[in-house]
Amino acid sequence: MVVSESAPAEMAGLSQDQLRSMYRDMVLGRLLDERILVLNRQGRAPFAISGQGHEAAQVGVGYALRRGHDWLVPYYRDLTLVLVMGMEPKDHLLAALGKAADPNSGARQMPGHYGSRAHNIVTTGSPVATQILHAVGVAQSFRYRKEDTVVVVSVGEGGSSEGDWHEGLNWAAIYHLPVVFLVENNAYAISVPQSRQMAVAHVADRAAGYGMAGAVVDGGDVLAVYRAASEAVERARSGQGPTLLEALCVRLQSHSSDDDQRRYRTAEDLADTRAHDPVVRFRTELEAAGVLLDGDADEIRQECQRLIEAAQEEADQAPVPDAASALMHVYAEA
Amino acid sequence: MAEITYVEAIRSAMEDEMRRDDRVLVMGEDVGAKGGVFGATAGLFAAFGEERVIDSPLAEAAIVGVAIGCALAGLRPIAEIQFLDFIPPAMDQIISEAAKIRYRSNGDWSCPMVIRAPCGGGVHVHGALYHSQSLEAMFAHVPGLKVVVPSTPTDAKGLLLAAIRDPDPVCFFEHKALYRSLREEVPDDEYLVPIGQGRVVREGRDISCITYGATVHEAVAAADRLAKDGVQVEVVDLRTVRPLDRSIIISTARKTGKVLVAHEANLAIGVGAEVAAIVAEECFQQLDAPVMRIGGPEIPAIPFAESLAEVYCLGPDKIEAKLRELAAY
After folding, report:
1. CB contact under 8 A, B65 and A130
2. Each residue of B115-134: pLDDT tens digit?
3. Which residues, 6 or more positions from A65, have their beta carbon under 8 angstroms from its beta carbon?
């Protein structure tokens, strides 16, 4: 395939290397997610929660940030996003297998509860939308210290029904804080469809009610997300306040390893969801634009597989937590 | 040595610490230009500006949740909840988030912050059901939190300074009946009162009255009455209800062999039960009487009318009666 001269310009001003890197990160997230689900089905990982279908939204947002400088307050579907922020596949295999070296929590929390100070990823718990307020406080701190740092906080569309969501957006808008509220709307909160979650068509319709900018973007289109997120991040960084950015995603897997979405979603709905796989879509676009040549996609896939194999080997060998360590870190060690 | 009120002790602790450490900031309802509904932040807005003394929207979960975010980002926030009665919307943030941040991140993150709230009532406070509660036991149940309930201006200042400098979240509950009724000389120079250490307020050999908060003063008044009859009551102010000062509880119980635990909070499943359990476990051989407790009755909170409030509140008379019962045992 001939490389199209115009392709990079059409692709959000990103270089071919950046585009390939974005695709590679989407594939890495997908394959790691699949591996963790396999470990669960093998009975080796007691619990798994999937972000499959959200990869384009997460890579688009991640690439709009200054990684190593900006902050992320994630939620449980953000496997690909925390990888983009600098965490490693091994980190999450250690978590899935409940190993002591899990950097998220030392195997104290269920997998999917991300956090890493080294990568400016704030620790997260299970209650939905509590993290919204933490991001607002983080942004308040950036403003107080006159730093040009931006924080992104993510949540599902179901989380936007919580009180903490409302309180956080209201506060952030009042003080024009440098925060981007990312809603990864995959149309289901476990089994409850969006129509039973809100009476508006889009979560971002509410942005005006808070007095902040809002945007809805096709979360299956990584470059569209990248453009929208870049705009939101720039708005935040330049002191013009928060943005409510809603990315319309698909949920390819059930809510968690303890759920079976075939019990509440129709076969047609699930088939349509699979037809909107963002990883397949970006590969097709990059091949059509000549950014990925014959064999490139396979090579990327193999490189990611090798990385995951090596990571799993390490995670397999890693020790479980020492029982005595269960009593540590309740308070600062004296 | 300057003579100051309890609320001035709280205010001056925050002011001193904000001058010393620019990471310290205050947020809450009406804490700005008004200086708080009880004046605990009076003058801070003028001194430090709106970036450090933040008038929050009327949203308690947000006050605590945003403060948590500030702590995660390296600041030392003080979150003021206007009345402890209004803290339930923030319980998720306190119990599920602040208390667990260090543990759940395996020590990677921490949450150094203070949650201040006026608590308590009284016959003449007229706070009624929603401006009078003593909810400290709810927080004292949670590993990861520290819970301080000071009884004097000196302790209030020294403990608040210690709380602000503490590396973990501290709930700091101030009895509103003490705010202006209590005045004493406090040291001019900086001093800290360590969290987790009780204090013998009044020595005695016959009975121990273990208490904290505003009830300390009622217990001392009751003890003075018994002293006239030759019964020496030792009054112990726990000062902190998590962590409890086990050694002071054990030493006073072993010394006197008779223990009354008194607190304004509802008695059942309360701090007094934990203190009684420690005494039962550690001092069984030295006890001369069953451990007794006195506290709030089985009604939700202090009612408005004085005739009803009296049913709830302790006061020196009820404590005295209980101490005499114990003395006669």
Report:
1. yes
2. 999 999 998 888 999 999 99
3. A72, A85, A150, A152, A229, A233
Stretch B221-246: mean pLDDT: 98
Chain B residues 67-86 with CB within 8 Å of chain A: 67-75, 77
The domains found in chain A, sorted by start residue, are 7-318 (3.40.50.970)
Chains A & B: contacts with CB separation below 8 Å: 140
Residues on chain A touching B62 (C-beta within 8 angstroms): 133, 136, 164, 167-168, 170-171
Q: Which of B60, B92, B106 to mutate to test the interface with A (most CBs of A within 10 A)?
A: B106
What average pLDDT does range B94-98 have in this prediction?
A: 98
Helix (H) or strand (E) run with residue B136 in it: helix B136-140
pLDDT band at A328 (very low <50, low <70, confident <90, very high): very high
Q: Which of A106, A113, A141 sits opposite B70 (nearest CB)?
A: A141
Task: Give the phi and the psi of residue B66 in degrees, each rounded to 5.
Answer: -70, -40
How does pLDDT run across A260-301, given as a tens digit for each residue?
999 999 999 999 999 999 999 999 999 999 999 999 999 999
Domain ranges in chain B with CATH number 3.40.50.970: 2-186
**pLDDT (0 to 100) of residue A334:** 77
CATH code of the region B2-186: 3.40.50.970
User: Which is more confident, A12 or A50?
Assistant: A50
pLDDT per residue as tens digits for the range B60-89? 999 999 999 999 999 999 999 999 999 999
Give whole-number Cα distances, A37 to A111, A125, A130, A263, in Å.
11, 21, 27, 19
Q: Residues of A with CB below 8 A from B54's CB?
A: 140, 175
DSSP A199: S
Instruction: Note the pLDDT of residue B180.
Output: 96
Contact B104 A109 (CB under 8 A): yes
Residue range(s) occupied by CATH 3.40.50.920 in chain B: 199-328
Asked whether the beta carbons of residue A123 and residue B107 sit closer than 8 angstroms, the reply is no
* A30 contacts: CB under 8 Å, gap ≥ 6: A52, A55, A80, A279
Considering the four listed CATH numbers 3.40.50.10320, 3.40.47.10, 3.40.50.920, 3.30.365.10, the one that applies to the domain covering B199-328 is 3.40.50.920
| Phi, psi angle pair for B110, to nearest 5° | -145, 170
Enumerate residues 6+ apart whose C-beta is below 8 A from A85. A62, A65, A67, A72, A116, A119, A120, A121
CA angle A325, B136, B172 (to 5 degrees): 85
First and final C-alpha spacing in chain B = 44
Q: Quick check: A8 pLDDT over 60?
A: no
Catalytic site includes residue A255: yes
Residue B27 has pLDDT above 70, yes or no: yes
- The residue-averaged pLDDT of B284-296 equals 98
Say what the ipTM of the complex is: 0.97
Q: In 3-state terms, what secondary structure has residue B250?
A: helix
Pick the closest to residue B294 from B230, B238, B210 (CA basis): B210
